[in-house]
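Review form for a predicted model. The reviewer records the input and the model, then writes brief findings.
Reviewer: anonymous (R2)
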Amino acid sequence: MYELSRDRFKELKHFCLQYREYREAVREAELDLVANHDDPVSRNAIKIRDNLYAIDLIERTAVDTNRVYADAILRSVTEDVSFKRLGIGINKGEFDDLRNKFFYLLSERKGI
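Model under review:
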């Protein structure tokens, strides 16, 4: 139902695995805005905007995939947490379907 090519799946998976980096980049750019008067504000603002867009896209797609399991989906796709470690109340097949749906929706939203 939610089919993606192997390469597209890998691209999206690695996009999600950079989630922590996006969050850290936002934090660093915000600190630079305060601490570094030599750095143009617009450059940091662009960094913040781009990273916040990626963060929001991933989080919103997880919620839209399934509100109940959004946190588990988010941990799975951004931290590569295994199904077993998530300890959630559905079976692995159902969760795999949710992950596939997540990546399908993310692919659509990224427009690639």
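Findings: The two ends are 18 Å apart (CA to CA).
Further findings: The longest helix spans residues 41-65.
Recommendation: see findings above.
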